[in-house]
Amino acid sequence: MTITQLKYVLSVSKYRNFTIAAEHSFVTQPTLSMQIQKLEDQLGVLIFHRTKKQIELTDIGEKIVEQARIIINESNRIEDIVHQYKGFIGGEFRLGIIPTVMPTLLPIFLTNFTNKYPKVKLIIEELNTEDIVKKLMDGRIHAGLAATPLEIKDISEKPLYYEPFVGLVPKEHRLFDKKEISSDELEMEDLLLLEDGHCFKQSIINLCSRFKTDTSKKFQLESGDFNTLIKLSKKGHGMTLLPYLHTLDLNDNDKMYLREFKTPTPAREISLIYHKSQLKIQLIEVLKNTIDRVIRGIISFNDVKIISPLQKR
Questions:
Q1: How far apart are CA 180 and CA 169, in angstroms?
Q2: Domain 88-160+269-312 coded CATH 3.30.40.10
Q3: What would the pLDDT profile of 237-276 be if each residue is shown by its tens digit?
Q4: Euclidean distance between CA atoms 83 and 280, whole angstroms
Q5: pTM over 0.70
Q6: What Å distances lie between residue 12 and 17, 22, 36, 40, 138, CA to CA?
Q7: Per-residue pLDDT for 151 more than 50?
Q8: What is the reported pLDDT for 214?
Q9: Could you tell me if 71 and 57 are in contact, meaning their C-beta atoms sit under 8 angstroms apart?
Q10: Mean pLDDT of all residues in 206-225
Q11: What is 162-267's CATH superfamily?
Q12: Are the C-beta atoms of residues 12 and 58 closer than 8 Å to each other?
């Protein structure tokens, strides 16, 4: 049994196709198939069902893949240990980012990070919080950017900033004439929300004073896209709430609909999260420092709408 054979097994498990798995493993399909066959012969079991249209794992194959993933992750730690010892900032770094943070924060820090650390191969996935946590636990990503606190065992959280909520209120709305709004004025039947699976939605629900359903409303919408919510809100179909960074790219006409909250301003905490056993701590630290710098730039330019962890204290 070799590490290479286990990597091939994981690749076939992921793509459910020997040809595609071979392409992503940078070997020929016969080579990959032969190595997996040798492993199966050595173990005396079948890892994959090959008779069906789509390759599927056998029952024992499921358990082998689970253990193979652990072995591969642990073998990768040897390189991480050497990098940490040498102070080397480079190598592959897999980062998961929640959808409500990806389009606003990533463009702000990505260029700075890649220019300063050209030896880092940054692989980024857009994932919901549940999937980020699962992949951190499985060792399939190294860190995540998510709304916290999560308070999950074995997951460390490094707060990056506190992002205020901002209301986007159409002209016909009862709150449009107010210069500032308060969270106790929000009502669920008034709001256009993101769909289930977005932690931002739950943050909004926690702000609302009442949770009754308006049965007279002609439609109910939960969208996965802030732009859809903005367009519908401007058409008078209800108000919505946006994270502050998302408001920076709005045009001047759209900004006339924005209403800030009275103090204390409701905000969400955004953190860099990672497994407590993670060895790529140097990469995690330089990523955190990069984001800290760009957030401080936004703070100084935009009259402290974003709050840093140091300010919070």
A1: 11
A2: no
A3: 788 888 899 898 899 999 999 999 888 888 889 999 999 8
A4: 8
A5: yes
A6: 6, 8, 9, 14, 18
A7: yes
A8: 47
A9: no
A10: 50
A11: Periplasmic binding protein-like II (3.40.190.10)
A12: no
